[in-house]
Design goal:
Number of domains of chain B: 1
Protein name (chain B): Fe-S cluster assembly protein SufD
Number of strands of chain A: 12
GO biological process, one term (chain B): iron-sulfur cluster assembly
CATH topology of chain A: Rossmann fold
Shape of chain A: globular
Organism (chain B): Paracoccus sulfuroxidans
CATH class of chain A: Alpha Beta
Strand order of the largest sheet of chain B: 2-1-5-7-9-11-13-15-17-19
InterPro entries (chain B): Fe-S_cluster_assembly_SufBD, SUF_FeS_clus_asmbl_SufBD_core, SUF_FeS_clus_asmbl_SufBD_sf, SufBD_N
Family (chain B): Belongs to the iron-sulfur cluster assembly SufBD family.
Distance between the termini of chain A: 30 Å
Radius of gyration of chain A: 18 Å
Strand content of chain B: 35-45%
Number of strands of chain B: 19
Oligomer: heterodimer
Helix content of chain B: 10-25%
Shape of chain B: globular
Number of domains of chain A: 1
Amino acid sequence: MLEIKNLHAELEDGGKQILKGVNLTVPAGQVHAIMGPNGSGKSTLSYVLSGRDGYEVTEGEATLDGQALLDMEPEERAAAGLFLAFQYPVEIPGVGNLTFLRTAVNAQRKARGEEELTAAEFLKVVREKAKSLNIDAEMLKRPVNVGFSGGEKKRNEILQMAMLEPRMCILDETDSGLDVDAMRLVAEGVNALRSPDRAFLVITHYQRLLDHIKPDVVHIMFDGRIIKTGGPELALEVEQNGYGELLAEVQ
Amino acid sequence: MSTTTLASAKPETAPQEPLALRLAALDLPVGGFTRAARADALTRLQAMGLPKGRDEYWRYTNPAAFNQPQPNALPVDESVLDSPLFTSIDRLRLVFVDGRFDAAASDELKGEGLEIASLATADAQADHWAAGVYGKLETAGQTPVARPFAALNTLAATDGVLIRVTGKVSRPVHLVYRRSDPLADVHLHHVLKLEAGSELTLLETGMVGARSNAVIEADLAKGAQLHHIAAKRAGYQKVGISQIFARVDAEALFKSFNLQVNGTLMRNESVLEIVGDDAVAHIAAAVLGDGRVGPFHQDDTVFITHAAERCESRQVYKKVLKSGARGVFQGKILVKPGAQKTDGYQISQALLLDDDSEFLAKPELEIYADDVKCSHGSTTGALDETALFYLRSRGVPKERATVLLVLSFLAAALEEVDDLRLRDEISERLDEWLTSRASELDPSGNGASAKA
């Protein structure tokens, strides 16, 4: 589903190279985790894939279901089925959460040539999905993420994901800032979306999220490259021994 | 009403002086019940003279277009209909054409709890309740800052509306402005007198004149509530100054919101004096200026005086500027001795959609009481790239995302409109307006970086 080949990227401002040849394949139906120390390029990878300004791809390619992602605008990537759950979801005062969600859902449907949802149809679906994430009506009415707790913001990200039904979901440190209960709730939301047609790339520092969202494959990223790939046991290994030993082994 | 030129009867001003030329170009009404106020205004105006660019309160706004004797012609576009704003709600409509009340086009001047007349009609009489307000609040508002155009207005006003409110009036009074004369130089003067416990909503839409000078004097007695919402249209070449003078007594609520889109030179002066305990005064504006078609310069100058205890004032100014547009904000809170427990808040913010636009802010606090809470903030910034990316990453196209973020920026000002019907209407109109121009709003390049 997601194919990344020899991806090199640098900061537009200053030209510092961050991604130095990432190779990664995530087939449909699988959950892949990327772990790695700070500064290894994990978040940059998620930004480059979703089309954030400020990065320049110097080499390599990335495709989603065979479509070249890197030439598309961020909204086109979203319509093609890519979703990024932000590490720090953005607050947007004055724009209601529901308005925002409906605008996003219908913009994607329109881009794909599908019929837009009416207000009634949309409300029915959103209420159902919000309920399973413990998001109440009041939270839906509030401005996007304004005054939300850390847990509420992350649940709101998962709600967006549930509404937009992407093919490929990237979760950027979704566990950061969450207590155990909030993390479980978020993980349950993610697990409910697992399906044979959908794939996940879970970026995290810690093993603990992976106790709740069980990965099929674990990659270790360091200095802009995937340096090791293995099964779930690789995450446990990192948790116990840290990255030091792994890095020494690879270098 | 007879009109003669008072200006010709003032030997102390040499004819070549700017003020003399300015006055000579006007047909100054002698006035009935306003006669004394007009004569007094002339004396005061002659003492202060027209503003000069070096005057402290005119440093950021060039008064030349207000000072020149004749307005520049502003073509009348017959295809432009009345603003669609507020048309869906039940309201009392008063139509002014080139600043003259048009009774035939207006609703009947009556309503429960309302005493209402046009200034021109009322001024044929020697006595009127409005004599207790006309020019009085304006005069009080001349200290400590001189406001020559407000005095000029009191002197030269040809029409306006006089409203006395005695009850809770649920039906808003809507002043609809229209133009027919491309050279109309309009002086409109409205007087609002809200008796104790009364309530009024005043709406203003349309374009007053080629050049306009408008004054509202609002006297709020104990517990009165005034909600004022102005969405006056300004063409790209429009020149206008409007001044609001409010006196807010105990437990009264004064709220004013102004939506301003386009205009070559627009200046709004708001002078609010809170004189009774536990009163609330809020003033807000949402401003959108695009200098692409013509120059845009918009100036909000606010002076709020706290002269009583436990009062709250709030100023919320939001300006979206692009293509060389210039926004000015001069806001002052004065807390007089003894005005304890004052809660004063002021925020002025500009969203610059490119590198060519400019926002000049001068927040001032002057506090002579020791138990008060006053805060102010001013920011200038570009569209938030992270927020833009967030919206786009959810599939919202860039143009729509930009419109949503501009609306988001303006939201805090719109929230000062309490009536949700009115607020939603304004919001929808703004959305439409922005959407129709979305491709032009696109912040090409990286926009302006944040300034202090």
